[in-house]
């Protein structure tokens, strides 16, 4: 949004969602980021596996799955960064040892 200053007037009179790729407005305009498609795929899959589930339960499970996947993705990239840092500073063998130690840390007891 191109505004010189944010005031009460601009907060309530500007359509902030128009420029947000996550919004339904962006989806309807054809320039969304795929979140609606992601929701539809998850909803249809959940309904196929649990046909009696309510929409509220489907939404809860969707958000739970999404949060778990997001956290796993963040953990994965944090581990990759740690291994890359060790490889860069100490070499490939130290990186391999670090990767093995990270996989041991991630294994449940």
What attributes characterize this protein structure?
single chain; 109 residues; mainly alpha; 5 helices
Order of helices and strands: HHHHH
The SS-based structural class is mainly alpha
pLDDT below 50 for ≥5 consecutive residues: which ranges?
none
State the major sheet.
none
Distinct helical segment count: 5
The rough form would be described as flat
Descriptive account of the structure:
By secondary structure, the protein is mostly helical. The protein is 72% helix and 0% strand. The protein contains five helices and no strands. It has helices at residues 8-13, 24-29, 35-49, 55-90, 92-106. The longest helix has 36 residues, at 55-90. The chain is flat, with a radius of gyration of 22 Å.
Summarize the structure.
With 109 residues, the chain is mainly alpha-helical. It has helices at 8-13, 24-29, 35-49, 55-90, 92-106. It is built from five helices and no strands.
Please describe the topology of this protein.
Blueprint: H1 8-13, H2 24-29, H3 35-49, H4 55-90, H5 92-106
Helix pairs in contact: 4-5
């Amino acid at each position: 949004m191109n505004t010189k200053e944010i005031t009460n007037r601009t907060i309530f009179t500007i359509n902030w969602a128009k420029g947000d790729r996550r919004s339904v407005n962006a989806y309807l305009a054809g320039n969304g980021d795929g979140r609606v498609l992601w929701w539809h795929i998850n909803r249809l899959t959940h309904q196929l596996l649990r046909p009696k589930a309510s929409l509220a339960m489907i939404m809860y499970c969707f958000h739970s799955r999404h949060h778990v996947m997001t956290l796993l993705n963040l953990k994965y990239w944090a581990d990759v960064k740690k291994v890359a840092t060790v490889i860069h500073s100490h070499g490939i063998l130290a990186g391999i040892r670090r990767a093995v130690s990270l996989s041991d840390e991630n294994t449940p007891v």
